[in-house]
Amino acid sequence: MPPKYNRNAHATASAERREHLYKILVIGELGTGKTSIIKRYVHQFFSQHYRATIGVDFALKVLNWDANTIIRLQLWDIAGQERFGNMTRVYYKEAVGAFIVFDVSRVATFDAVVKWKNDLDTKVQLPDGSPIPCILLANKCDQQKEGIVNSPAKMDEYCREKGFAGWFETSAKENINIEEAARSLVNKILLNDKLLHSNDKDGEKFALDHKIANGENNREPSTGKFCAC
């Protein structure tokens, strides 16, 4: 005899399954490898030959986060030549997280990072008015590095001062730390979601978790992973 169908159990299981759609920006100077990072992350594909992105491009990454959670990441690949113009306000709208990318072999692209971060923070915020979580990607770490990226301690300090949620050395070519960086950003986005939707009873706990995650109680070095290139 087949087992009896339990409608309530099925409804409960369905109710517990959650889906999220998150808009994530990928910004930074021209030629830093933004498109390559997205192609590697979404399609596990790398090419030496990409034409410069014109305006903005999109990609979708679906994550089976856990048994009850599906996360869809809408990745916005914004052209480096947009250069903090008026259109970036339109592109940034409703984003809940961001990557800023620089090329470790070109120190000028690192010098521009702070301008991209300031532009981001002035044009998009979380519902409580705080900046959206942003992770700094030191890309092309398979090449010779220039500047303070050679000192993890200085990079940690820089990220704390500029309000980054963390940083990772990445390589789209060698597939280094891209999955890890994305997972770190999604974790911070989920924490912000909990803060936003939790009731007053739970709010204090999540606020404490948020402070710890952002090092506001006891500042700790970035958890970014470094490639041994």
Keywords:
six-stranded mixed β-sheet; alpha/beta; 229 residues; disordered C terminus; single chain
Tell me what you see in this structure.
This protein has helices spanning 7-16, 34-43, 87-92, 107-111, 113-123, 152-162, 178-197, 200-213; strands spanning 18-28, 56-66, 69-78, 97-103, 134-139, 166-169. The protein has 229 residues and is of the alpha/beta class. The protein has a single domain (18-194), classed as P-loop containing nucleotide triphosphate hydrolases (Rossmann fold, 3-Layer(aba) Sandwich). The chain has a six-stranded mixed beta sheet, sandwiched between helices. Strand 5, helix 6 and strand 6 (166-169) form a beta-alpha-beta unit. Helix 7 packs antiparallel against helix 8 (200-213). The longest helix has 20 residues, at 178-197. 33% of the residues are buried.
Give a short synopsis of this structure.
Its main location: membrane. The chain has 229 residues and is an alpha/beta fold.
Topology:
Blueprint: H1 7-16, E1 18-28, H2 34-43, E2 56-66, E3 69-78, H3 87-92, E4 97-103, H4 107-111, H5 113-123, E5 134-139, H6 152-162, E6 166-169, H7 178-197, H8 200-213
Helix pairs in contact: 7-8
Number of DSSP helical runs: 8
The proportion of strand residues reads 15-25%
Q: Cα-atom Rg, whole angstroms?
A: 19 Å
Return the string of H and E elements: HEHEEHEHHEHEHH
Poorly predicted runs: 2-14, 216-229
Mean pLDDT: 82
Helix content: 25-40%
Q: Which oligomerization state do the chains in this entry correspond to?
A: single chain
In spatial order, strands of the major sheet run 2-3-1-4-5-6
CATH architecture: 3-Layer(aba) Sandwich
Number of strands: 6
- Estimated structural class: alpha/beta
Give the overall shape: globular
Write down the domain tally.
Answer: 1
CATH superfamily: P-loop containing nucleotide triphosphate hydrolases
Distance between the termini: 62 Å
CATH topology: Rossmann fold
- Largest sheet entry: 6 strands, mixed
